[in-house]
Design goal:
Oligomer: heterodimer
Structural class of chain B: mainly beta
Radius of gyration of chain A: 18 Å
Largest sheet of chain B: 4 strands, antiparallel
Number of domains of chain A: 1
Helix content of chain B: under 10%
Shape of chain A: globular
Order of helices and strands of chain A: HEEHHHHHE
Helix content of chain A: 25-40%
Order of helices and strands of chain B: EEHEEEEEEEE
Number of strands of chain B: 10
Number of helices of chain B: 1
Strand order of the largest sheet of chain A: 2-1-3
Structural class of chain A: alpha+beta
Number of strands of chain A: 3
Shape of chain B: elongated
Radius of gyration of chain B: 17 Å
Number of helices of chain A: 6
C-alpha cells in the first residue's frame, strides 16, 4: 500500500501532483442530486476520481472547514485576493475516509450551504445521495428534472 | 515532501536565450477537466474535486486547490461536436476562486449537451 508522505505545510497543489503520480483514480458510483433554486432544474454533482483517491488515501486533503473560511473571506465586499491561502497548506490534513464519508465531505465543500444545512426540512428533500444507476437513463427533458416527490431510495430519484 | 529540489531563477539555452522560471511557474495551467457532456463523468482531470451537471449544456467544475483571486484568472473551454447536432460554442467563466462554469451551445445559441467538454484554468493559486 502506498504510504502518504508527511504533507502538513506542503502546498496543496504539490500534494495533488504527488497523488496524481502515485494513486489510482477511483470512479465513484455515487451522485449527489440537489435543488439549488426553486425555479431551476435539479443539479447533479459528480465526484472527481483523482480527488476521491486522495480522500480514500488520507493525509492529503485539508479539513473542509478550511474551505468555509476561504469562502467567508471571499464573501466580504472588499475581497480582492486570498490572504489566508496558507490554511489550505498548513492545516493538518484529514485522515483516510470511507467513500461515504468522502461524499459527505464533498457535499459540505461543493454544494451551497443553504442546500445541505437543512436539506430535509421542507415539503420534500432538497438533496439526495444516490447511485448513478438511479438517475434517468436518458437526458430527455433534462432542464425539467426535479427530485422525485415520492422518493424511495431503491428507485429512480429524478424525473 | 521527501523529494529532491532544483532551485533556479533562470533557465538558459546555449543558443536560444534564457527564460526566467517565474514564467514557467506562473504560466502553467492550474487545473484541467475533461468530461462527458451528458453525465459529467470525468475522463481526465487535475486539481478538481467535482463537476456539476447544471442542466442541458451547463456545467461547473469545483477546484481542490483554490485560486488566489478571480480577477486574475483565465479559463479556456472547448467541446466536441455531437454526431447528431452541431454543438459549436463554449463559454467558460470563473464564478469564484474555487469554481468555474462552462456552457456549451448549438449554432442557434441554445444550450446543448456536448459529447465532450474540455477546460483549462490559468492563474495564481491561493
Amino acid at each position: 500500500m502506498t504510504v502518504t508522505p508527511e504533507f502538513q505545510g506542503t502546498h496543496l497543489f504539490d500534494r495533488l501532483c504527488w497523488a496524481k503520480e502515485n494513486l489510482e483514480p477511483h470512479q465513484s458510483d455515487y451522485r449527489v442530486v440537489y435543488e439549488d433554486k426553486i425555479d431551476e432544474c435539479a443539479k447533479i454533482l459528480v465526484p472527481d476520481p483523482n480527488w476521491m483517491a486522495c480522500a480514500l488515501q488520507g493525509g492529503i486533503l485539508p479539513p473542509v472547514q478550511v474551505y468555509w473560511e476561504l469562502a467567508k473571506d471571499e464573501a466580504q465586499p472588499d475581497f480582492v485576493k486570498h490572504t489566508r491561502g496558507h490554511l489550505l497548506h498548513n492545516t493538518e490534513p484529514v485522515e483516510a475516509m470511507t467513500e461515504e464519508q468522502a461524499i459527505e465531505y464533498l457535499i459540505m465543500k461543493d454544494c451551497p450551504q443553504h442546500v445541505w444545512r437543512d436539506y430535509d426540512s421542507g415539503n420534500k428533500p432538497k438533496m439526495v445521495i444516490c447511485r448513478k444507476e438511479q438517475l434517468p437513463a436518458t437526458r430527455e427533458w433534462r432542464n425539467a428534472w426535479k427530485i422525485s416527490e415520492e422518493l424511495a431510495t431503491d428507485e429512480t430519484v429524478a424525473a | 515532501m521527501a523529494l529532491g529540489k532544483i532551485k533556479a531563477d533562470t533557465l538558459e539555452h546555449s543558443t536560444a536565450g534564457s527564460l526566467d522560471t517565474q514564467y514557467v511557474v506562473n504560466g502553467s495551467a492550474k487545473a484541467h477537466a475533461s468530461y462527458a457532456g451528458s453525465g459529467t463523468s470525468f475522463s481526465s482531470s487535475f486539481n478538481c474535486s467535482s463537476a456539476v451537471d447544471n442542466g442541458a449544456g451547463k456545467y461547473s467544475v469545483n477546484l481542490s486547490s483554490a485560486l488566489s483571486a478571480t480577477a486574475q484568472v483565465t479559463p479556456i473551454g472547448s467541446c466536441n461536436v455531437n454526431g447528431d447536432s452541431s454543438t459549436t460554442a463554449t463559454t467558460t467563466i470563473v464564478v469564484s476562486t474555487s469554481a468555474y462554469k462552462t456552457n456549451t451551445s448549438n449554432d442557434q445559441g441554445s444550450f446543448t449537451d456536448a459529447a465532450g467538454v474540455f477546460s483549462v484554468l490559468m492563474g495564481d493559486l491561493a
